[in-house]
């Protein structure tokens, strides 16, 4: 009989554990939707966390229908500006760009992030061979007080639902306009949150992989692994937990419920003294149930859920959101 072993520590699904190529997350896949056409994603900035009281909307919960307290994350979601339309086709090597056009009034902002002529006039786009429609959205960093970066960023957001022709017409109708978060989602619905986690630098075996400490009387060290693997194959395999980069990885949190969407002019969310390492929320914001990856000021991308099981709720009843100072907490 083989010697029973403990299951391995740490998932190999996140390998290699190296730093993300950029602090701006990238959405690699999009779900199909039935309603629309509409945007399937949005961009925000993590401000911080607080706690709220609301009526428990989870039907299977022991506290269903009762008022409960829970931690919530505040995400500032300034409007995005639709600066271009990009059409994709599908070939033997995957998707490729068929054609694209940009908003002439956004050329000054676009020239800061990509090479484009200042005399650009735009061009006509058709639907022949098109399999996917996306917009090129300008992330207006200058509107967020907490972000020192004033140069805009650019990202692709998919338009889903309806036929290809309807998607192209919808994209043309919003070209050059500022789009608020309400065009993407609303309270009671789920979203997937994609972000880059907090960076923790070079860490040891125990912190990085969660392996057990070696016995107290072990020679020289305790916070290491007991073996680098078998004699053969005669190299150290990548499945062996070792020290290295920890954090600053792109991760996706599935199925996060939006509890509230508001404007600071109507309902102030900034706590006394401002959010720690962030400051004041001056644009539209949402409250998301629970925590999300990343540090304050980090850009997060929101997407339609790809693994939703629990149904959306029509309304979440919030009775209290804490704005007590977070300084020194």
Helix/strand/pairing class, anyone? mainly beta
DSSP summary, beta strand count: 15
Low-confidence stretches: none
* CATH secondary-structure class of the largest domain: Mainly Beta
User: What about the largest sheet?
Assistant: 6 strands, antiparallel
**Count of alpha and pi helical runs:** 3
First and last CA, distance:
54 Å
Average predicted local confidence, pLDDT: 93
Q: CATH homologous superfamily name of the largest domain?
A: Translation factors
Give the strand content.
25-35%
What percentage of residues falls in helices of 4 or more residues? Answer: under 10%
- What's the SSE pattern? EEEEEHEEHEEEHEEEEE
Give the radius of gyration.
23 Å
**Structural domains: how many:** 2
- The coarse overall form would be globular
CATH architecture of the largest domain: Beta Barrel
> What name does CATH use for the topology of the largest domain?
Elongation Factor Tu (Ef-tu), domain 3
Protein architecture, described:
- This protein is mainly β and 329 residues long.
- The protein folds into 2 domains: 17-35 and 47-77 and 186-208 and 240-329, Translation factors (Elongation Factor Tu (Ef-tu), domain 3), CATH 2.40.30.10; 80-179, Ribosomal Protein L3, Chain: B, domain 2.
- 6% of the residues lie in helices and 33% in strands.
- It has 3 helices and 15 strands.
- The protein has helices at residues 107-110, 164-174, 205-209; strands at 38-39, 41-55, 67-76, 80-91, 94-102, 132-139, 153-160, 178-179, 190-196, 199-203, 244-247, 250-262, 285-289, 299-303, 318-321.
- Strands 1, 4, 5, 6, 7 and 8 form a 6-stranded antiparallel sheet that branches.
- A hairpin with a 2-residue loop joins strand 4 (80-91) and strand 5.
- The longest helix has 11 residues, at 164-174.
- The protein is globular.
- It starts with 37 loop residues before the first strand and ends in an 8-residue tail after the last strand.
- The mean pLDDT is 93.
């Amino acid at each position: 009989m083989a010697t029973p072993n403990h299951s391995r520590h740490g998932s190999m699904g996140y390998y290699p554990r190296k730093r993300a190529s950029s602090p701006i997350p990238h959405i690699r896949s999009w779900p199909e939707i039935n309603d629309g056409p509409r945007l399937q994603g949005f961009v925000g900035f993590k401000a911080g966390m607080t706690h709220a009281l609301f009526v428990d909307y989870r039907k299977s919960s022991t506290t269903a229908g009762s008022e409960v307290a829970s931690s919530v994350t505040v995400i500032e979601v300034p409007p995005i500006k639709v600066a271009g339309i990009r059409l994709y086709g599908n070939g033997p090597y995957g998707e490729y760009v068929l054609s694209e056009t940009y908003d002439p009034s956004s050329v000054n902002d676009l020239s800061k992030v990509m090479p484009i002529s200042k005399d650009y006039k735009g061009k006509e786009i058709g639907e022949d061979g098109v399999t996917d429609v996306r917009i090129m959205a300008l992330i207006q960093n200058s509107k967020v007080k907490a972000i020192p970066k004033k140069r805009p960023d650019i990202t692709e957001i998919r338009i889903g639902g309806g036929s290809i022709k309807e998607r192209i017409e919808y994209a043309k109708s919003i070209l050059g306009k500022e789009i608020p978060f309400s065009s993407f989602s609303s309270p009671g619905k789920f979203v997937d949150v994609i972000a880059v986690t907090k960076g923790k630098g070079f860490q040891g075996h125990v912190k990085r992989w969660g392996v057990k400490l070696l016995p107290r009387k072990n020679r020289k060290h305790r916070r290491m692994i007991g073996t680098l693997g078998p004699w053969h194959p005669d190299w150290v395999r990548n499945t062996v937990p070792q020290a290295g980069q920890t954090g600053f990885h792109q991760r996706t949190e599935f199925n996060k419920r939006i509890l509230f969407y508001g404007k600071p002019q109507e309902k102030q969310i900034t706590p006394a003294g401002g959010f720690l390492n962030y400051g004041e929320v001056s644009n539209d914001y949402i409250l998301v149930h629970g925590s999300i990856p990343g540090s304050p000021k980090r850009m997060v991308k929101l997407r339609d859920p790809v693994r939703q099981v629990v149904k959306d709720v029509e309304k979440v009843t919030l009775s209290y959101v804490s704005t007590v100072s977070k300084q020194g907490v």
